[in-house]
Amino acid sequence: MNCESKKYRRIVIKIGSNVLTREDGRPDTTRISALVDQVAGLYRAGVEVILVSSGAVASGRSILEQKVGRIDTVSARQLFSAVGQVKLLNRYYDLFNEYGIACGQVLTTKESLSTRRQYLNQRNCMEAMLAAGVVPIVNENDTISVTELMFTDNDELSGLVAAMMDAEALVILSNIDGIYDGSPADPASQVIRRVAPGRDLSQYIDTARSSRGRGGMTTKSRISSRAAGEGIEVVIANGRRDGILTDLILTNRDVVCTRFEAAPRPASGVKKWIASSEGFAKGALRLDAGAAAAISQSKAASILAVGVTAVEGEFERDDIVRILSPEGTPLGVGRISCDSATAQRNLGRKGLKPLIHCDYLYLE
Ligand SMILES: Nc1ncnc2c1ncn2[C@@H]1O[C@H](COP(=O)(O)OP(=O)(O)O)[C@@H](O)[C@H]1O
Ligand SMILES: N[C@@H](CCC(=O)OP(=O)(O)O)C(=O)O
After folding, report:
1. pLDDT digit string (tens) for 116-147?
2. For residue range 60-77, what is the model confidence (pLDDT) as tens digits?
3. Gene3D superfamilies annotated for this entry (predicted)?
4. Which of 35, 172, 210 to mutate to test the pocket of ligand 1 (most atoms within 8 A of CB)?
């Protein structure tokens, strides 16, 4: 990240459960402490840092596992996170306090980012914290986020936070040096050092997940590509390496990591939100060939009723809908200007205001 020794104004650092937890499941207090030392160094160097920290469930499990009897998986996650998050944040609080730095907890859910107003509320909260010199420590609210309401994992959350907060860089710390071009267990595999915008790494990733985390390398790679496409430089690095954050961000040391180069043109704030709201799409518009070609060729093209052949699902005005090609391939998402009944009524008609204005259209 810092081969050019450039200084970042604002970065998001995501710390995975595997970094914060020892092999036996207990919190790795030495590692947490070392990471806080480095974040304090960045803070003093004038870099605004937002932490996205996993580890609540693992922390709670280490306290309670022996004490609770048989319990279902969802309840266990809720229980462990409720207890573990307190312990985790207490630890962060004490460690930052040694440097005279205040930190604060931001617990969120996927749904809390689903409407523009809630999204702006979240952003405003973190802007206020940063303006007051407080380090936000974000985690999913695992006590109430269950099943389909959950983020894939905190990698997904960190990508959304980085886009929402206009961060210049996102550092994802895991227990591995980066994405390997083969099985990480194979000595012949090497870390992929640079990833150009749009390059697909899925062929290299072993979809098996780790024992403590949720999404694994698949989500990291997908989220990193997306964030890089939004103009955010992304680095996947090993959080267990001593001095990793200092090396990546403050010094010139060439540390092993996978770096996703940022695409040159950052998307607008509204488009970032629309892109991040994909999971909330309430329905879909299927385009004819002419409309599909128009939006792929021009960034200023809106979606007009005359170019839509079908309206799928039920939605309200301002909901997010998916855009489909004539064959049903997803092309992107957008904010719809009317409800589904009106869209249905107007199908194929000319001279109406766009169903989705180009400013509210995000193409993949
Ligand atoms: N090609 C690959 N390169 C690196 N790691 C991989 C690859 N394929 C699968 N993995 C696995 O992904 C794991 C990291 O993801 P995850 O367990 O979710 O980490 P975290 O808890 O830090 O979020 C690694 O420990 C590794 O076993
Ligand atoms: N919110 C959960 C973390 C879930 C998660 O995404 O974990 P990880 O894949 O290790 O980043 C927790 O705090 O335990």
Report:
1. 788 889 999 999 999 999 999 999 999 988 87
2. 999 998 888 888 989 999
3. Acetylglutamate kinase-like, PUA domain
4. 210
What is the helix (H) or strand (E) element at residue 290, kind and residue range? Answer: helix 289-297
Residue 241 phi, psi dihedral angles, 5° rounding: -80, 135
For residue 193, the CA-to-ligand 1 centroid distance in Å is: 16
Write out pLDDT tens, residues 152-174. Answer: 889 999 999 999 999 999 999 99
Residue located nearest, by CA, to atom 9 of ligand 2: 213
The per-type count for the chain, helices as H runs and strands as E runs, is 11, 13
**Which atom of ligand 2 is closest in space to residue 15's alpha carbon?**
11
Kindly list the domain boundaries of the chain, sorted by start residue: 10-269, 281-363
Q: What 3-state DSSP class applies to 171?
A: strand
237 CB near ligand 1 (under 6 Å):
no
Pocket of ligand 2 (CB under 6 A): 16-18, 54-58, 81, 139-140, 142, 153-154, 212-215
Please state at what angle helix 154-164 crosses helix 116-131, rounded to 10 degrees.
80
Q: What is the pLDDT of residues 183-203, one digit of tens each?
A: 888 899 999 999 998 888 888
pTM exceeds cut of 0.90:
no
Nearest protein CA to atom 11 of ligand 1, as residue: 217
ipTM, 2 decimals? 0.93
Instruction: Give the closest residue (by CA) to ligand 2 atom 3.
Output: 54
- Ligand 1 pocket: which of 176, 179, 240 to mutate (most atoms within 8 A of CB): 176
Question: Domain 10-269, CATH 3.40.50.720 — does that match?
Answer: no
Question: Ligand 1: does its nearest atom lie under 6 Å from the Cβ of 184?
Answer: yes
In angstroms, the CA 153 to CA 308 distance is 35
CATH class held by domain 281-363: mainly beta
